[in-house]
Amino acid sequence: MKYDDTLDTRGLSCPMPILETKKAIAHMTEGQVLTVLTSDPGFRTDMTSFCQVTGNELLIARGSDNSFEFTIRKTFVRRAS
Questions:
Q1: So which residues are the catalytic ones?
Q2: I need a surface site. Which of 25, 30, 60, 80 has the fewest CB within 10 A?
Q3: Mean pLDDT in the chain?
Q4: At the top level of CATH, which class does the domain 5-73 belong to?
Q5: Beta pairing, strands 57-64 & 33-38
């Protein structure tokens, strides 16, 4: 899979990994793919919720112990008027 950008948040604790992810994805265009590396075990829950709320697509969620990788695709979401 081709990634457009990689964000390394290893060593950061909640809420920093998800805040950095939000900033990174905001600068991407629709269809681009971001991989996030983290050591925060709670990030799985944060990322799942983030994708549900923002409409971005969670493509990969894997890892063990204190090394995790998440890959998301930025998706255009139309807002109701």
A1: 14
A2: 80
A3: 92
A4: alpha beta
A5: unpaired
